[in-house]
Specification:
Helix content: 40-55%
Pfam families: BcrAD_BadFG
Protein name: BadF-type ATPase
InterPro entries: ATPase_BadF, ATPase_NBD, Euk-type_GlcNAc_Kinase
CATH class of the largest domain: Alpha Beta
Largest sheet: 5 strands, mixed
CATH superfamily of the largest domain: ATPase, nucleotide binding domain
Shape: globular
Domain ATPase BadF/BadG/BcrA/BcrD type: 18-315
Radius of gyration: 21 Å
CATH topology of the largest domain: Nucleotidyltransferase, domain 5
Oligomer: single chain
Organism: Goodfellowiella coeruleoviolacea
Length: 342
Amino acid sequence: MGLSMTGGSATTGRVLAIDGGNSKTDVLLVDADGAVLGQARGPGASPQQLGLAASLTVLTELVGRAAAQAGLPEHGLVADHTAAYLAGADLPREEEDLRVGLAGCGWSTTTVVGNDTFALLRAGTADGVGVAVVCGAGINCVGVARDGRVHRFPALGRISGDWGGGSHLGGEALWWAVRAQDGRGPDTALLPAIVDHFGLPGIEDVVAGLHFGEIPESALHGLSPLLFQVAAAGDPVAAGVVDRLVEEISLLATVSLRRLDLLAEPVTVVLGGGVITGVGAPLVDRIAQRCHAIAPLAEPHVVDVPPVVGAALLGLDAIGASPQAEHHLRTTHARVGSPALG
């Protein structure tokens, strides 16, 4: 759709969608009919991890790549509306700081910023109503009722009551392994598995490597898949950590459903994030069972499109795009596929 002028302001009929996680960032540029014009993937852009200036630098490079792919200048106006949903946009102050920063980039005439879990919710629903729980590098949950009421958690880590996420789970696995070695805890297959994972002589070498910065703290996230493998092989210690995660994800979902008065209604519970999608059906089935015990009509499922599609759908909602645009975007993205984002 070409550039036009309405009321003295430039309009493009395009939406710039951003899903910025802790580990990766996706950008989509779509037209008002839901067609994908350009896309890019890059590293994480969480302002909590990078700082606002560095986060904007990452986003600027990715937006430029998506614009160039669409045949547009890499700088300046590329869309009517920017829909940016970012990890680290947890509190109103953070959302406003990001909105001001993104608006200053001049990519669009209007800008909305929210937490990336809202993009997950829209990606997994037809209308953005329901509850979404993400468990990737971190863990978070949001809920939106049909009347517009919102329930969310601060999601600032342990200081705000959080438990879970890949890095946290990896830390738990290491904690149990260390205690198995020094006698403070039970024997666990996590001990030899973690030592083998790092290729070091013993668990004390792993601890020293982390302490002295020779092993990056981000390496803990890589222990999360190992935890699930050891649990699946029957190790009771690892299985106990996985049980705790199932309880936490179910608790996040059902607390949100309760606070929004949705326990007795048919409602979608969207599950996403690398930890959940990496484990698959067994974990999801257990989460569903726990949710159904409290909210019998809830419908938990794993999202089947990337959250950046949800960000784009929220952007299309904001500009008043037709319902056909959602169908077009979902089918177009299915054809284009995530590999093109790599």
